[in-house]
């Protein structure tokens, strides 16, 4: 099923997982998926080679299992920067053979260890190529606070509009910790006639190293109350984790009350945290959007 069709019916609630590191057994992800399945997400997306480690077949295998073993709609992430057109055609063929209908088309993180190729310099070029060469629902990434490389948010939105015009059917946002950035971004996107569904990306932060990494990788702002929370609990791991979960729930309650299209939870493959959040918001998500 193409996941963009879900947004007509409800507030979409979806998860992201990543393939286990090469040093961990692949089976660990299957027990995580089994546990995540209890919360009945609308779909699960599977990352692809983040940081340049090219584990594409693993992504396809996991996305296949999400759909066919666990009965949940799946999305395969697909970064274009390290592939040429012939390689991309083969990947699209493999995705179709695996029964995957949904692709998150990305430029991809540029790794110092892998020389980028020229065919897909921007995600919009990959979106055009996928639409010309297959029957996929194509999802794109968006950045409420602007992409790190963009000179201004306005410039980033102009490129986002190009990506949508190329055929992107749905968007998923970068994580953020201040909902006001997301609402301001939605207003600007709508002013530019970007009218595809936009899911809010929420990452529960459960340890200090994780947040430092995220801020340097994504350049997101940390609100004062978030920083105070981190300082108070940084030497108390259980309290830090619980505060991070509560913060994410608080963000979601506000977003769902404001009738956003959907919530995409970056689970970090942690089913315990996904469970706590899913249980806390499940009744909210069941209320029709227009109510
Ligand atoms: P683009 O949309 O191409 O944008 C990249 C930059 O180029 C932006 O600054 C944009 O403004 C600019 N730009 C776009 N078009 C033009 C143009 N025509 N001329 C000049 N500038 C332009 N990475 C992975 O490697 N694997 C993953 O699985 C993965 N999953 C992700 C999931 C989500 C929800 C998100 C938000 C990000 C994910 N990423 C992943 C990270 C992503 O690959 C990086 O953020 C990457 O730097 C940008 O990818 P993009 O698809 O947004 O690029």
From TrEMBL:
<comment type="pathway">
    <text>One-carbon metabolism; tetrahydrofolate interconversion.</text>
</comment>
<comment type="pathway">
    <text>Amino-acid biosynthesis; L-methionine biosynthesis via de novo pathway.</text>
</comment>
<keyword id="KW-0285">Flavoprotein</keyword>
<keyword id="KW-0028">Amino-acid biosynthesis</keyword>
<dbReference type="Pfam" id="PF02219">
    <property type="entry name" value="MTHFR"/>
</dbReference>
<dbReference type="GO" id="GO:0009086">
    <property type="term" value="P:methionine biosynthetic process"/>
</dbReference>
<dbReference type="InterPro" id="IPR003171">
    <property type="entry name" value="Mehydrof_redctse-like"/>
</dbReference>
<keyword id="KW-0520">NAD</keyword>
<keyword id="KW-0486">Methionine biosynthesis</keyword>
<keyword id="KW-0560">Oxidoreductase</keyword>
<dbReference type="GO" id="GO:0071949">
    <property type="term" value="F:FAD binding"/>
</dbReference>
<dbReference type="GO" id="GO:0005829">
    <property type="term" value="C:cytosol"/>
</dbReference>
<protein>
    <recommendedName>
        <fullName>Methylenetetrahydrofolate reductase</fullName>
        <ecNumber>1.5.1.54</ecNumber>
    </recommendedName>
</protein>
<dbReference type="GO" id="GO:0106312">
    <property type="term" value="F:methylenetetrahydrofolate reductase (NADH) activity"/>
</dbReference>
<comment type="similarity">
    <text>Belongs to the methylenetetrahydrofolate reductase family.</text>
</comment>
<dbReference type="InterPro" id="IPR029041">
    <property type="entry name" value="FAD-linked_oxidoreductase-like"/>
</dbReference>
<dbReference type="InterPro" id="IPR004620">
    <property type="entry name" value="MTHF_reductase_bac"/>
</dbReference>
<dbReference type="GO" id="GO:0035999">
    <property type="term" value="P:tetrahydrofolate interconversion"/>
</dbReference>
<keyword id="KW-0274">FAD</keyword>
């Amino acid at each position: 099923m193409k996941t963009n069709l879900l947004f007509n019916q409800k507030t979409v609630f979806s998860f992201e997982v990543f393939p286990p590191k090469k040093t961990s057994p692949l089976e660990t992800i299957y027990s995580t998926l089994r546990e995540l399945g209890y919360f009945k997400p609308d779909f699960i997306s599977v990352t692809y080679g983040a940081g340049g480690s090219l584990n594409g077949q693993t992504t396809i295998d996991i996305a296949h299992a999400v759909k066919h073993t666990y009965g949940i709609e799946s999305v395969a992430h697909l970064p274009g920067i390290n592939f040429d057109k012939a390689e991309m055609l083969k990947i699209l063929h493999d995705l179709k053979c695996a029964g995957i209908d949904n692709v998150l088309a990305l430029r991809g993180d540029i790794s110092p260890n892998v020389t980028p190729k020229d065919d897909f310099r921007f995600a919009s070029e990959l979106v055009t190529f996928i639409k010309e060469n297959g029957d996929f629902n194509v999802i794109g990434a968006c950045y409420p606070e602007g992409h790190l490389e963009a000179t201004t948010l306005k410039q980033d939105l102009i490129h986002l509009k190009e990506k949508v015009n190329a055929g992107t059917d749905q968007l998923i946002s970068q994580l953020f910790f201040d909902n006001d950035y997301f609402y301001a971004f939605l207003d600007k996107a709508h002013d530019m006639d970007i009218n595809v569904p936009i899911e809010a990306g929420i990452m529960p932060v459960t340890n200090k190293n994780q947040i430092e990494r995220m801020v340097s990788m994504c350049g997101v702002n940390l609100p004062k109350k978030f920083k105070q929370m981190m300082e108070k609990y940084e030497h108390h791991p259980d309290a830090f984790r619980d505060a991070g979960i509560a913060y994410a729930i608080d963000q979601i309650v506000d977003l769902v009350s404001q009738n956003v299209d959907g919530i995409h939870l970056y689970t970090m493959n942690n089913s315990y945290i996904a469970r706590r959040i899913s249980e806390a918001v499940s009744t909210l998500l069941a209320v029709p959007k227009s109510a």
